[in-house]
Design a protein that fits this description.
298 residues, mainly beta, Porin, 2 domains, 12 strands, 13% helix, globular
């Protein structure tokens, strides 16, 4: 009997020590785990007008169609006669974006507005991690050229405009992602118009601050928004300029992401919608639009 009791006690002690050792090993492995990159802060490279932190994946091509109809003019006779803007195409842009690496993408696009042809680059140089780095940051830049003359007999250099932008984003939770976008738009040529109220004039260099967000509703549906505030005495409602604001629904359907949105901006690239949004939400001058993208792997 004593032998059996001693054997039982030794077995229990060994089991306890083994359990303690296993827990210590698991705890040590957890502490030694490397922080992981936070993936899919956003599901597409664009929200409505704003860029996101995402870049096109390496060796893939993102073909995108962005469409803006005319002003809806809800409650006005003009709205019914244009089928609430559906008869009018305010702007259309076709674009191709290619992933050079997982962090670097390049692209080209063509818009109806000013017949702009734009070339762009996005580089994500900081990535949010589960531990340590709390945000992701990317640099975006573009150059746009208008093939048509801005003024009669204008110089070729006058047709160029440029954007420089930082994209600072954070995935707050599985369902909420937010970003802020400090932006500089430079236009080689601007009109010398004078503001009738404060006597200010248009600027070649225009600073703006953008905000964007995504709020997940289900596995495949999310609400999105973006807003841009230009810092300009010239751009006020008294001078018929307004801040760009858009809201929409994002639907993920297998191989592509589809956005249905409302925006008061006809412009689609930063060179257009930041300096030249001339429609007001208060006057029902918002436009139904959609963004649709299809990704091809090479």
């Amino acid at each position: 009997m004593k032998f059996h009791i001693t054997l039982l006690l030794l077995t229990c002690s060994f089991a306890c020590f083994a359990q303690d050792d296993l827990l210590d090993m698991l705890s040590s492995e957890t502490e030694d785990q490397q922080p992981e990159k936070v993936a899919y802060t956003f599901k597409a490279i664009k929200l409505i007008n704003a860029n996101t932190i995402e870049t096109t994946k390496k060796k893939t091509m993102d073909f995108r169609i962005t469409h803006r109809f005319g002003d809806m003019k809800i409650g006005e006779p003009e709205g019914k006669h244009t089928f609430w803007g559906m008869d009018n195409a305010a702007n259309i842009r076709f674009s191709l974006d290619y992933g050079v690496t997982e962090k670097l993408s390049i692209g080209v696009g063509r818009s109806k507005t000013k017949e702009h042809i734009d070339f762009n680059l996005k580089f994500r140089f900081l990535e949010q991690k589960t531990k340590g780095m709390p945000i992701s940051v990317a640099y975006f830049t573009n150059a746009a050229i208008s093939p048509v003359a801005i003024i009669p007999d204008d110089e070729f250099a006058n047709r160029w405009s440029y954007t420089h932008q930082l994209i600072i984003a954070k995935k707050i939770s599985r369902g909420i992602s937010l970003e802020i976008l400090p932006t500089l738009v430079h236009r080689n040529y601007v009109l010398n118009d004078v503001h009738p109220t404060n006597n200010s004039t248009d600027e070649n260099d225009l600073f703006a601050l953008g905000f964007g967000g995504r709020f997940k509703v289900s596995n495949r549906v999310a609400m999105v928004f973006d807003y841009f505030l230009p810092f300009s005495d010239f751009r006020t409602s008294a001078n018929d300029y307004y801040d760009s604001f858009g809201v929409g629904v994002e639907i993920e359907t297998g191989g592509h992401v589809f956005h249905i949105n409302l925006s008061n901006s006809a412009g689609i690239i930063e060179n257009d919608f930041i300096p030249d949004t001339r429609s007001s939400w208060e006057d029902s001058e918002y436009k139904l639009g959609f963004n649709i993208s299809r990704v091809f792997s090479f």
